[in-house]
UniProtKB/TrEMBL annotation:
<dbReference type="InterPro" id="IPR005958">
    <property type="entry name" value="TyrNic_aminoTrfase"/>
</dbReference>
<dbReference type="GO" id="GO:0004838">
    <property type="term" value="F:L-tyrosine-2-oxoglutarate transaminase activity"/>
</dbReference>
<protein>
    <submittedName>
        <fullName>Tyrosine aminotransferase</fullName>
    </submittedName>
</protein>
<keyword id="KW-0663">Pyridoxal phosphate</keyword>
<keyword id="KW-0808">Transferase</keyword>
<dbReference type="GO" id="GO:0030170">
    <property type="term" value="F:pyridoxal phosphate binding"/>
</dbReference>
<dbReference type="InterPro" id="IPR015421">
    <property type="entry name" value="PyrdxlP-dep_Trfase_major"/>
</dbReference>
<dbReference type="InterPro" id="IPR015424">
    <property type="entry name" value="PyrdxlP-dep_Trfase"/>
</dbReference>
<feature type="modified residue" description="N6-(pyridoxal phosphate)lysine">
    <location>
        <position position="254"/>
    </location>
</feature>
<keyword id="KW-0032">Aminotransferase</keyword>
<dbReference type="InterPro" id="IPR004839">
    <property type="entry name" value="Aminotransferase_I/II_large"/>
</dbReference>
<dbReference type="GO" id="GO:0006572">
    <property type="term" value="P:L-tyrosine catabolic process"/>
</dbReference>
<dbReference type="Pfam" id="PF00155">
    <property type="entry name" value="Aminotran_1_2"/>
</dbReference>
<dbReference type="InterPro" id="IPR004838">
    <property type="entry name" value="NHTrfase_class1_PyrdxlP-BS"/>
</dbReference>
<dbReference type="InterPro" id="IPR015422">
    <property type="entry name" value="PyrdxlP-dep_Trfase_small"/>
</dbReference>
<comment type="similarity">
    <text>Belongs to the class-I pyridoxal-phosphate-dependent aminotransferase family.</text>
</comment>
<feature type="domain" description="Aminotransferase class I/classII large">
    <location>
        <begin position="45"/>
        <end position="410"/>
    </location>
</feature>
C-alpha cells in the first residue's frame, strides 16, 4: 500500500479518500497497518493509537463483578436458548433502571431494545426511520458507521460541522439550514468520538430545541456515556426528550471495558409519545425478529453486572483516562506541524490537526498516516475516515509507556518531515 501511494501519487490518494467514505474504521486501520514493513530490520513493536479498544492493555480491564456475573449465569444452564424479541425481560428492565438514573422520567423496560453492541443499534435506528427521499444529519467529524448504514438504506447524508474553536460544539445554524421536511433525525455523539468533547447541559438543550424547530428527532449516541473526566459532566440527551423525541444508543462496551461482549441497546425516550406509536413499535419488533440477538447468557448477566460493579472501578478508569489525556495533550504541544485545539474531556480519543504547509513530501492525512506506519510502526486513524481531511484521531486508552513511546515516534516523524526553516 505504501509503495502505491508513492507511485500513483495524488490521483490514488483522491481515489482512496473517496473509498474511505464507504469503509468501517477497522478496514481503514487495516489499510494503514498494511504499510508497516515486515522486512524492516529494525522490527520495532507496532504501537496502535488508532482503534478504541483498550482491552489490549493490562491497565484497562473489566471489573471482577462483570466476569463473575457472566460465569454465574453461564453455569446456571438456564440461558442457552434464543432470546425473546427485544431482549430478555430482566435485561431490558435492568438497562431501563440504569439509564433512568440520568433522567427526569423513568424508562419502562418496553422502551429498551437489547442489541448486538452499539453498531446494531445504529443500524436499527436508521432502518426503522428510513423512508423514500429521506435524509439524515450527521456530525463532521463523526463515526462513519452512520453514513454506511444510511447509504445502505438509501437515506441521503447531510453533514453539519462541529466547531473545533468551540470545543467541537454543534453548528446549530448549519442544522437549521440543512434540515427539511424529509429529515428523519439529527445524530449527536456525546461524549464525542472522534473529538473527545463533552457537551454541556445548555448546549444539549439548544440541540433539542433546534430539533424541535426543524420537526425532527435526535439520535443520541452515548456509547461513551459517563466517560467524562474534564470540567463538564456527562449529561444524557434523554433529559430533553420532552422537547423532542430522543433515540438513545449505547452499550456496556466502553464504560465496562468489554467491547467484545457485544451488549448494546436502542432506547426510545419519548414521554409525550409524539414518536412512540403502535405502528413504530410494530416496525421495530418486526425488524428485530429478523436480526441476530445479543448472546443470551451475557444478557442474563447484565442485572448483576450493573448492581455489583463498585464505583471505585469507574473512578479508576476515569483517573487513568484523564492521566493519559493530559499526557497526550502535553506531548502533542511539543510536536511541530500538528495542533490540538482542545484537550480531550471524555471518551478515549482526541483529534489533532496536521499543518501540511509545514511539512515536506506529505500531501494529506492519508499520506501522513501511511508514512508514519511505514517509518515508525505507529498507527493513527486518518481524519478523512471521520469526514475531516488533514486531521488524525489519536486513541489514548493504552498503557502510559506505550502512549509516550508512540508520541515520541510521532515527534521524530514530524521533525524528519518538517520543512527547513528559512
Amino acid at each position: 500500500m505504501g509503495s502505491q501511494t508513492n507511485s500513483l501519487g495524488e490521483n490514488y490518494t483522491k481515489e482512496l479518500e473517496i473509498t474511505t467514505t464507504k469503509m468501517t474504521v477497522k478496514r481503514i486501520l487495516g489499510l494503514v497497518m498494511d504499510n508497516i514493513d515486515g522486512d524492516d530490520e529494525r522490527k520495532r513493536e507496532v504501537i496502535s493509537l488508532g482503534i478504541g479498544d483498550p482491552t489490549a492493555h493490562s491497565c484497562f480491564h473489566t471489573t471482577d463483578a462483570a466476569k463473575e456475573a457472566v460465569v454465574e449465569t453461564l453455569l446456571l444452564d438456564k440461558f442457552n436458548g434464543y432470546s425473546s424479541t427485544g431482549g430478555l425481560p430482566i435485561t431490558r428492565k435492568a438497562i431501563a433502571s440504569y439509564l433512568s438514573r440520568d433522567l427526569c422520567d423513568d424508562l419502562s423496560p418496553e422502551d429498551v431494545y437489547i442489541t448486538v453492541g452499539c453498531t446494531q443499534a445504529i443500524e436499527i435506528s436508521i432502518s426503522i426511520l428510513a423512508k423514500q427521499n429521506s435524509n439524515i444529519l450527521l456530525p463532521r467529524p463523526g463515526y462513519p458507521t452512520y453514513a454506511l448504514c444510511a447509504n445502505y438504506r438509501n437515506v441521503e447524508v447531510r453533514y453539519y460541522d462541529l466547531v473545533p474553536e468551540k470545543n467541537w460544539e454543534v453548528n446549530l445554524e448549519a442544522i437549521e439550514g440543512l434540515a427539511d421536511q424529509n429529515t428523519i433525525a439529527i445524530v449527536i455523539i456525546n461524549p464525542g468520538n472522534p473529538c473527545g468533547n463533552v457537551y454541556s447541559y445548555d448546549h444539549l438543550e439548544k440541540i433539542a430545541e433546534t430539533a424541535k424547530r426543524v420537526k425532527t428527532l435526535v439520535i443520541a449516541d452515548e456509547v461513551y456515556g459517563h466517560l467524562a473526566f474534564g470540567e463538564t459532566p456527562f449529561i444524557s440527551m434523554g433529559l430533553f426528550s420532552s422537547i423532542t423525541p430522543v433515540l438513545t444508543l449505547g452499550s456496556l462496551s466502553k464504560r465496562w471495558l468489554i467491547p467484545g461482549w457485544r451488549l448494546g441497546w436502542f432506547v426510545i425516550n419519548d414521554p409525550n409519545c409524539t414518536f412512540k406509536s403502535p405502528k413504530v413499535i410494530e416496525r421495530i419488533n418486526k425488524y428485530l425478529d429478523i436480526c441476530a440477538s445479543a448472546t443470551t447468557f451475557i444478557q442474563a448477566a447484565v442485572p448483576k453486572i450493573i448492581k455489583n460493579t463498585k464505583e471505585d472501578f469507574f473512578r479508576n478508569t476515569l483517573k487513568m483516562l484523564k492521566k493519559n489525556s493530559d499526557l497526550c495533550y502535553e506531548k502533542i504541544l511539543e510536536i511541530p506541524c500538528i495542533n490540538c485545539p482542545f484537550k480531550s474531556q471524555g471518551s478515549m480519543v482526541v483529534m489533532v490537526k496536521i499543518i501540511t504547509t509545514l511539512l515536506q513530501d506529505i500531501s494529506d492525512d492519508m499520506d501522513f498516516c501511511f508514512k508514519l506506519a511505514r517509518e515508525e510502526s505507529v498507527i493513527l486513524l486518518p481524519g478523512t475516515a471521520m469526514g475531516l481531511k488533514n486531521w488524525v484521531r489519536i486513541t489514548f486508552a493504552v498503557e502510559p509507556s506505550c502512549l509516550e513511546e508512540g508520541l515520541k515516534r510521532l515527534k521524530s516523524f514530524c521533525l524528519r518531515h518538517s520543512k527547513p526553516k528559512k
